[in-house]
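User: Can you help me understand a structure? I only have the sequence.
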Amino acid sequence: MQTETKRNPLVLSFAVIASLTLAACASSSKAPVQALQAAELSIKSAEQARAGQYAAPELRDARDNLSDAKAAVEDRKMVIAERLAKESRANAELASAKTEMLKAAAINDEMRVNLDTLKQEMQRNTGARK
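Assistant: Let's start by predicting it. Here is the structure, written out as tokens:
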């Protein structure tokens, strides 16, 4: 009798795992439209931020992943397509973040140069009065 109760939880666990696996496969048969659209939107946003100038490798990876995701949809490999679309979006967001960081660094450098110039000018004016 004890072995029967030990088997039941094991059988039940196996049945639950099998059901979840089948549900995951069934739900992934539809194209990952939202993931693809999010990737496209992120790429457009990165392009508008001029990521091609500041983060070209990351933007290229985003475009390549999106292209591969669309090919996976055509091949009916929806799980792979969704993963690639998400990677595409992540790469595009990385390109945008890198672009913003580099733009901010350039502005910071310009401000530092302007501040140094202003300090030199103030020292010249102060020295001329003495």
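Now, to help you interpret it: The two ends are 106 Å apart (CA to CA). Residues 26-100 form one domain. Let me know which part you'd like to focus on.
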